[in-house]
Amino acid sequence: MNWYVLYTLSHRTQRILANLNRKRELEAFIPSYEVCHRYTKEITIKPMFNNYIFVKTELDQGEFNTLLFNMKEDNNGLIKQLINSETSALTLKEIEFFNLVLDSRYVVKLSKGYQENGITHVIKGPLVFYENHIVKVDKHNCCAFLDLIFFDRRIKLGIDILSKK
Q: Which of 38, 94, 120, 140 is the most interior residue, by most CB within 10 Å?
């Protein structure tokens, strides 16, 4: 299974996503993550990367490029296909990361943890797998920043820091 990443105009992202998902050989989605609002404890879902659409398919790079070209009228607003060293398919390490943290709806569930002596300990959620990669926690916005970079951006995921273990 190959994964491709497309960058779109913000006001066209949902329309392009719908057009791509009409093709049976594609599964297009926007990876998102849950965020817990600090005071209300209301959980909302935010895109991990604004204006990015991920596509999973068995098509190779050439076949995928042809399909996109043939859909160019439907995909007005598609800015570019992100390229990662001669191919836009994600690396195996990137695919592994997304497979571990995303649920079946392509949402990263909120993790729960606590801090002790400046170290964040994750007790529940997908960040359990990446606890050692947490470099900063923004308690106000209930999110953790990882030392993992994806297309020149630090990955940010939701975490609810509990006051006690």
A: 120
pLDDT digits (tens, 9 = 90+) for 44-75: 999 999 999 999 999 988 899 899 888 887 77
The Cα 144–Cα 147 span in angstroms is 10
Between the two ends of the chain, the Cα-to-Cα distance in Å is: 40
Closest CA to 60 of 89, 92, 81: 89
| Residue pair 1/56 in contact by the 8 Å Cβ criterion | yes
Place 141 in a pLDDT band, splitting at 50, 70 and 90. Answer: confident
**N residues, the chain:** 165
H or E element at residue 43: strand 43-47
For residues 86 and 7, give the distance between their C-alpha atoms in angstroms, rounded to a whole number.
17
Within a 13 Å sphere around the CA of 82, how many CA atoms are in the beta-carbon half?
19
Distance CA 31, CA 90 (A): 14
Torsions phi, psi of 24, nearest 5?
-70, -20
> Sheet of 26-29: strands edge to edge?
26-29, 52-57, 2-8, 78-81
**pTM of this prediction?**
0.88
Q: Are 159 and 143 in contact (CB under 8 A)?
A: yes
> 136, 129 in Cβ contact below 8 A?
no
